[in-house]
C-alpha cells in the first residue's frame, strides 16, 4: 500500500485581507480547476472538493467541479470532501459519482459525511434533529447501491422502498471507493469501523496526537466486527501550507487563514479571530496545522503517521482566499519536495495494517 498525498479545496470566497475585495466566482472556479491541473501534472495522488451551500463558497455542486477536473487531468483521483449524504439522495449521489468514474477513467471516490456545516439540512427540507439517523439510513442505501443492481430495498424512515430499481450507470471501477468522513465524534468512528469502511479523519486545530482515541475506537470496532485489520485504511485531512522557509510559510498563510476562520468558519457571522500567537502554536511541532518548509511538513506528516497509522493525507490548501500564485507554489513544493520523501519512507508493506504507536484515549473519548 503506497502512502498517498493529496489536496482538499472548499472553493470559499473570502475577502482579500489587504483590499477587502471578494474573488469573482467564475475566476475562482477556474482557479480551482487550475489547481487540479497542477496537482495532476506534479504527481499528487488525490484532490477533493468540499460541499457547502452558501454564497461564500463557490463549490456548492462538487460532482460538477470534479467532472470539470476530470477533463483537465489524467491520473489524479477525484473525490468529494465531503458529500453531505444526510441531506442528499443516495441514488442521485451514486448516479453522479458513477458518471464521474466513467468520465475520469475510473478515478472517482466518495467521502460521505454528516456535514460540519449544516445549512444544507433546512435548504433541502431535513430536520437537524435527525442528523445522525439520516446518515445511517442513507449510507446503508448507498452501500447497497454499490453492491447490487437492480436493487430491491425495503425503505426506511426517510425514503420509500425500491423495487427492482435499475440504478445507472454502473461505475467503471469494480468497487468505487466510499470513505466516511469523521470529525471528533466517537460514535461516528465506531460505526465506520464496524462497517469496515475506510475513515477520513478531519483535524481542524489542536495537537498532532489529539485524535488518537478516535482512531483506536475505529480500529477496535472493526476488529470486534470481524473485519480484517489489513483492509482498514485511515486518512487524514488538515490545513496547511508549504513555503520556501518556515517563516515564509507562516507569514504567507496566517492573514488568509485567520480571515477564513473569521468569515467562512461554520456559519456566517460566527467565526472568530485567531491570534498570531495561537496560530504559531498550532503550527509548531506538536500543533495540528501542517505549515512550514518542506522538511517541516515532512516531519509533521510523519508524526501524524506515527500517531494514527494513516496511509493518506489530504492537505487543505489556500483556505481564506490565498492568492493563486502563492497557492500553486505551495502545491508544487508539496508534490516535488514532500510527497516523494513520504512515499519512500512511509510505504506500507502489502498485507500489513498501519497502526498508531500509542493506545491512549483522550478523556472525552475513552
From TrEMBL:
Q: Does the keyword Oxidoreductase apply?
A: yes
- Keyword Oxidoreductase present in the record's keywords: the answer is yes
Pfam families hit by this protein: Bac_luciferase
Question: GO molecular function of the protein, one example?
Answer: oxidoreductase activity, acting on paired donors, with incorporation or reduction of molecular oxygen
* Domain Luciferase-like: from-to ranges: 5-308
Q: Which InterPro entries does the record associate with it?
A: Bact_Lucif_Oxidored (IPR050766), Luciferase-like_dom (IPR011251), Luciferase-like_sf (IPR036661)
Q: Which UniProt keywords apply?
A: Monooxygenase, Oxidoreductase
Top-level division of the source organism's lineage = Bacteria
GO CC terms: cytosol
Which protein, by its recorded name, is this? LLM class flavin-dependent oxidoreductase
Organism source for this protein? Micromonospora acroterricola
Amino acid at each position: 500500500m503506497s502512502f498517498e498525498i493529496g489536496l482538499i479545496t472548499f472553493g470559499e470566497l473570502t475577502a482579500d485581507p489587504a483590499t477587502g475585495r471578494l474573488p469573482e466566482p467564475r475566476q475562482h472556479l477556474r482557479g480551482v480547476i487550475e489547481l487540479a491541473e497542477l496537482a495532476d501534472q506534479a504527481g499528487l495522488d488525490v484532490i477533493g472538493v468540499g460541499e457547502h451551500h452558501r454564497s461564500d463558497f463557490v463549490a456548492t455542486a462538487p460532482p460538477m467541479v470534479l467532472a470539470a477536473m476530470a477533463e483537465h487531468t489524467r491520473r489524479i483521483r477525484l473525490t468529494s470532501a465531503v458529500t453531505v449524504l444526510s441531506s442528499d439522495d443516495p441514488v442521485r449521489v451514486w448516479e453522479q459519482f458513477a458518471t464521474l468514474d466513467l468520465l475520469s477513467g475510473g478515478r472517482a471516490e466518495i467521502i460521505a459525511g454528516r456535514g460540519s456545516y449544516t445549512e444544507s439540512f433546512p435548504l433541502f427540507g431535513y430536520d437537524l434533529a435527525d442528523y445522525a439517523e439520516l446518515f445511517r439510513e442513507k449510507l446503508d442505501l448507498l452501500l447497497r447501491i454499490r453492491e447490487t443492481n437492480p436493487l430491491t430495498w425495503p425503505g426506511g424512515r426517510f425514503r420509500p422502498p425500491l423495487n427492482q430499481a435499475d440504478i445507472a450507470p454502473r461505475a467503471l471501477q469494480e468497487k468505487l471507493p466510499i470513505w466516511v468522513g469523521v470529525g471528533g465524534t466517537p460514535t461516528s468512528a465506531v460505526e465506520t469501523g464496524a462497517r469496515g469502511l475506510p475513515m477520513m479523519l478531519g483535524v481542524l486545530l489542536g495537537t498532532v496526537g489529539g485524535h488518537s482515541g478516535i482512531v483506536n475506537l475505529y480500529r477496535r470496532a472493526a476488529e470486534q466486527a470481524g473485519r480484517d485489520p489489513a483492509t482498514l485504511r485511515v486518512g487524514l485531512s488538515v490545513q496547511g501550507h508549504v513555503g520556501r522557509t518556515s517563516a515564509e510559510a507562516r507569514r504567507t498563510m496566517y492573514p488568509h487563514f485567520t480571515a477564513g476562520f473569521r468569515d467562512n468558519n461554520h456559519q456566517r457571522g460566527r467565526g472568530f479571530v485567531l491570534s498570531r500567537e495561537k496560530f504559531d502554536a498550532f503550527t509548531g511541532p506538536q500543533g495540528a496545522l501542517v505549515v512550514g518548509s518542506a522538511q517541516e511538513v515532512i516531519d509533521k506528516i510523519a508524526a501524524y503517521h506515527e500517531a494514527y497509522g494513516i496511509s493518506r493525507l489530504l492537505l487543505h490548501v489556500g483556505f481564506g482566499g490565498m492568492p493563486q500564485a502563492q497557492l500553486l507554489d505551495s502545491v508544487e513544493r508539496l508534490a516535488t519536495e514532500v510527497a516523494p520523501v513520504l512515499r519512500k519512507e512511509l510505504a506500507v508493506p502489502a498485507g500489513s495494517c498501519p497502526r498508531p504507536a500509542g493506545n491512549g484515549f483522550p478523556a472525552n473519548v475513552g
